[in-house]
Amino acid sequence: MLRKAVIVARRLWGMRWLLQPGSSARLVARSGLFDAAFYRAEAGLAGRDDAACLSHYMGSGGPGGLRPHPLVDPDFIREQMRGRGGRNPLVAYLRSGWWRGVRPNRHFDPLFYLRTNPDIRLAGFEPLSHYASAGWREARMPSEDFDPEAYRAGHSLAEDEDPLSAALAAERGSHHDEADDEAGRVAPGPVGSADDPPASGEDGADEWAGLAPLPPGEGVPVDIVVPVYGGYAETVTTIRRVLEARNRRACELVVVEDAPPEAAIRAAVDGLVARGLATVLRNEANRGFVASANRGMALHPERDVVLLNADTEVFDGWLDRLAAHAGPRIGTITPLSNAATILSYPVRLRDNCMRLELSDRDLDGLAASLGPASCEVPTGIGFCMYVSRACLAEIGLFDEKAFGRGYGEENDFCRRAAARGWRNIGIGDLVVRHHAGLSFGPEKAARVAEAIAEVERRHPGYRALIDHFIRTDPVAALRQRLDEARIRRAVPDPVLVLGRSERCGADVIRLRPEYGPRFGLYRVEAEAAPVTPNLPSFGPATGEAELGEMLERLGIRRIEVGPDAPGRLSERIVAAARARGWGVSP
To answer: InterPro entries from the entry (predicted)?
Structure first.
């Protein structure tokens, strides 16, 4: 009970900006849910400035049912609040509606959004405020009954267009029909890299054409252990990626076939054997992931191992970079990934399915170019985990009896290792694509809950350890440097625009206001590199030196100051630029 009370108190503290008394206009402005340009057209206020539009909305527009933002439906809010909506439905929603489960429109569920996005809960955002400012770009689901990526796939939308806003606009117009409803509910197929091979065994194609056995390398070989059960296309892609990737370190591919039900998978593994592409271990009956992983890790008692899921993608140099971090008392090493909970990138604690401006291969190459970087983590993550043989010899294999169905085995192993003085680290110079959850499908959530409960029973305080790690976020620096590198790559000769400007193009980086708990702060965004949530926010108190260093890391050498530029912050940015001899206009 005490732990739950502490968690609730932390969340309320994070969201205190919503609970403070004061001007309703200030609350609306801080929320980011008043879009002046949208409202100007909605209310017919051509020529009025943003402040006049907000004043009109708070005076008569809001009570009159005008919409302040494409995602806010005042009539729908009033229907749900049944007389508790007051004069202004948006204000009522922000004051109390969202945490009562009131939907601001028919496709956005605020409680679902918080439940499925723990990072937003921790940050203290009101759900719709976050979705409107960043969540849609990060391909976050607004509710169980609307899938933005499925809607985008079925409609002609611009890259910078929010699918939910487009769907709501279509429903308000004459083009709404049942097909629009259904399009938002169709789950998209697995999101993959632009490098995906056309793997299909049904047409008799040879999945392994053009591949050769892994070449001899340097040093003691590392075993790459890939347990195989389900997901034909993902399995073939994973194995192809391993065989195609060039590494200096000697290695051996060990495929553990766990009696898969798909004939295509069994035939593909037969092809590996026939071509001599891998060492194959076959279970006569299905034994589960943990037993299969243990069998592979036990094959060569003198070698370090990499446990690699059969729904991952790796690229040139991946093993070399993993192995380079090995050292005395380093037990496990785990890279960044689009789906790796505490090591997820670009958004932590979630499976990232959005497409970035570069391919998975190029993202990994960019991470490699930044050089080695690491931080200690409470647990490795088994989608791609390097395990020291010395650690295995001291700690033993995964606990098959307790975790035989999968999930939790690596958490238990890492905590056992930590208790013996071994370190678990996460690294920032390798990014592995992970098509998460394909092995267990809808069972995943239940299995995770059961596994974590068992880990907590065996290692009291495990949940508190993870909570502390999430709050302090030591991985933030690894994510931030990759965000910065993506912007440098996408915008090689940037100009930072402060305030309003008609300037647009691939060279533009803008200073955007934060909303919700970070109101009053600003962060840089580049349209050419969408979804960079790990860059720091700046405010009037940010020092000139810190601002200058950040702009240097982004490669900014030109500043353009327009109307409505944020006062003191802009002055400090300009001062930092002039001190470094950069161009400033006007």
So the answer is: Glyco_trans_2-like, Nucleotide-diphossugar_trans
Q: Which tens digits make up the pLDDT trace of 433-468?
A: 999 855 555 577 788 889 999 999 999 999 999 999
Residue 584 pairs with which residues in a beta bridge? 559
Mean pLDDT of 365-388: 99
Does an H or E element contain 77, and which?
helix 74-81
Report the alpha-carbon angle 280-284-287, nearest 5.
Answer: 90
Q: Model-level pTM?
A: 0.86
Nearest to 493 by CA among 510, 511, 512, 509: 509
- Can you tell me which residue has the tokens 């739950």? 4
Both 498 and 471 in one domain: the answer is: no
Q: Which two tokens stand for residue 256?
A: 């553990």
Half-sphere exposure of 433 (CA within 13 A, CB side): 29
Q: Are 509 and 458 in contact (CB under 8 A)?
A: no
Tokens of 554: 């982004």
Domain of residue 387, residue span: 218-478
Beta-carbon count within 10 A of 202 CB: 8
Question: Is residue 300 in some structural domain?
Answer: yes
- CA distances (Å), 199 to each of 189, 298, 311, 452, in order? 15, 30, 13, 35
Does residue 434 share a domain with residue 400?
yes
> How much is the pLDDT for 323?
99
Query: Which helix (H) or strand (E) covers residue 306, if one does?
Result: strand 305-308
Strand partners, 510: 497, 525
| Cis, peptide link before residue 110, omega less than 30° from 0 | no
User: Which whole-number Å values give the CA distances from 67 to 36, 98, 130, 133, 136, in the listed order?
Assistant: 11, 17, 18, 17, 20
Confirm if 362 and 396 have CB atoms less than 8 A apart.
Answer: no
Structure token digits, residue 280: 């194959």
Which is higher by pLDDT, 388 or 518?
Answer: 388
Question: For 205-260, how does the pLDDT look when each residue is reduced to its tens digit (9 = 90+)?
Answer: 589 999 999 999 999 999 999 999 999 999 999 999 999 999 999 999 999 999 99
**Is 280 inside a domain boundary?**
yes
Mean local confidence (pLDDT), 345-358: 93
What's at 452, amino acid-wise?
A: I
59 domain residue, yes or no = yes
Angle at 241 between CA 367 and CA 311, to 5 degrees: 90
Count CB atoms within 10 A of the CB of residue 581. 7
Q: First CA to last CA across the chain, in angstroms? A: 59
How far apart are the C-alpha atoms of 340 and 345, rounded to whole Å? Answer: 8
**Tokens matching residue 481:** 């440097």
Q: Is residue 209 part of a domain?
A: no
557, HSE (Cβ side, Cα atoms, 13 Å): 6
Distance CA 425, CA 331 (A): 8
- CA 188: distance to chain centroid? 17
User: How crowded is residue 449: how many other Cβ atoms within 10 Å of its Cβ?
Assistant: 12
Give 517's DSSP letter. G
Q: At which of 91, 111, 145 does a domain end?
A: 145
Q: Is 256 helix (H, G, I), strand (E, B) or coil?
A: strand
Q: Where is the domain boundary, 478, 513, 538?
A: 478
99 with 223, same domain: the answer is: no
Higher pLDDT, 501 or 441: 501
Cβ atoms 473, 536 nearer than 8 A:
no
